[in-house]
Amino acid sequence: MTSRRGALVGLITRYPVLKLFSLGVAVFLVWMVRQDTIREVEIRMPVVTILPKKGVILLQSPPTEIRLQIQGPLSRLAPYLQRAPEPFVVDLDADRAGSTYQFSVEVLEDHLEMQGARISAVYPPSFEIQMDSLGQVTLPVRANLQGMPSRFVYVDHEGISITPAQVTLTGPESRIRGLREVLTDPIDISGFDRSYGTRTGLVLPGEDSLAAAPDRVDVLIPFGEKRDMKPLADVVIDVVDCPAGYSCAAIPPTYSVRVAGTGRQVATIHKANIGKYIWIDGGGIRAPTSSTVSEIYGPVSPVVRNVEGLEFELDDENRYFKIRLRKQRTTVPEARPVGE
């Protein structure tokens, strides 16, 4: 009995350092096991889609990546967090058109060579497979003008130049079938009053399923001058170069006229400055030989000076005038006595 007790005491007390080390390792392993609890993390996996044959296009773009929710001990999840996964290849068969492609959890786990963890969710879980034949069509380009130019000009639509005048669209047959033209991006011409050129892109229906070659064009937009007309009434007409010693006045003293030309020109003409274009020339009137104070001369036609693009049309009753000549009074200075 005594020998057994001594052996037990020796077993406990012998090699104390080794025993303490063993106890520490055991505690550490227990701590590690408790720390390696189940976690859930998210990783992103690239997706590459292979179409079954040339000349086929998907109407809806497939996902370029998927998000995977992975559950497992942290020690098992670490490799997936430390490196990017290899792209997952989706090989579409022609007979799958019109169906839904479902991402298989089992296939994805095999792709990741997953051990000790599992995929709990996939986003998006699927996508629609809608295929169409790839087609081409060449169409004319039309300028997509927005806004209104200056009130003095108009857009010369027949003179609009687009280079190149046609572009080639490539895309699904169902989306290019029935198209008759391609519009440029909106071109704002608000307030413009002279020719304008720009380089612009194209508006393609069907979002990113269509491609244009080329995808930009040069547009030159010409503007023409608008014609305008406005009447002026009760305009006082001037008589110039009246004979010396006489004052001249037109009968009737006023006239009415229609001013026609470009809108820009017509806007500058008004009663105060129209005398530069219409007047009566009194240089051809001979001074009266009699001693009468007043005399009427005429009829005479007014001078109308049309300039390029600007025309004046007098009313019928204002095509001829008479001129009243009135002798001007002369005053003789009062004589003053010499010496004052």
How would you characterize this protein structure?
- With about 350 residues, the protein is of the alpha+beta class.
- The chain has three domains: about 40-130, RNA Polymerase Alpha Subunit, Chain A, domain 2 (Beta Complex), CATH 2.170.120; about 135-225, YbbR-like domain (RNA Polymerase Alpha Subunit, Chain A, domain 2, Beta Complex), CATH 2.170.120.40; about 225-325, RNA Polymerase Alpha Subunit, Chain A, domain 2, CATH 2.170.120.
- Helices cover about 15% and strands about 45% of the residues.
- It contains six helices and 27 strands.
- It has helices spanning about 1-15, 15-35, 75-80, 105-110, 175, 265, and strands spanning about 40-50, 55-60, 65-75, 90, 100, 120-125, 125-130, 130-140, 145, 155, 160-165, 165-170, 180-185, 185-190, 195-205, 210-215, 215-220, 225, 225-235, 240, 245-250, 255-260, 280, 295-300, 305, 310-315, 320-325.
- It is rod-shaped, with a radius of gyration of 50 Å.
Q: What fold name stands as the CATH topology of the largest domain?
A: RNA Polymerase Alpha Subunit, Chain A, domain 2
Binned strand content:
35-45%
> How would you describe the oligomerization state of the chains in this entry?
single chain
Let me know the average pLDDT.
Answer: 83
Distance linking N and C termini: 177 Å
